[in-house]
Amino acid sequence: MSIPTITIDVTLDRRNAKEVLHAILHAILFHRLFGTVKPQTFEVLDVTVPGVADPEMEQLINDKVDIFWKAIENGTSTNKRGQILVTFSEKRPKKSWFQVYVGEEDVPWEQWTINGEMRQPKSDKDFDTTLASTLSKTLHTILTYTSSERGRIAVPLITNATGISPFPLKISSKVDGVEIG
Description:
five-stranded mixed sheet; 7 strands; two-stranded antiparallel sheet; 4 helices; alpha+beta; 181 residues
């Protein structure tokens, strides 16, 4: 069984890369954390982005964006591309060969792939306008998918309603095909 993978392609510049990646991750988590979420909004390139006002989620997002940024900036290749992967899982009983319960395993039910490419803009104003348009389209993609029938069916039953997310969440990055965090 393959899990739904939603792909977001974004071309970034050095000035706005962290801010835009931060916004995209916040928007995904805002629509996929099913616990008690304290909402927040912030402006990125004149686009209002929904976010999650939770210190742990803020720290997680900041750490993952920083890891990705450093890997892109310090990479040995001239290819300034990478991915940030957000994977949502559910805990299921793990059974051995003889149907004996041997613990729990994380089974992914949805993955978001953010393909980021760093470019030097020819003109700052034109690039900011293009990036703002891309960010708006990305938010539209997130909202359209999470509110669609396909997006709602992907979510498993919530059996543990404690905390901000009833599901295990993993954010990792890849640069030059190598997982970095």
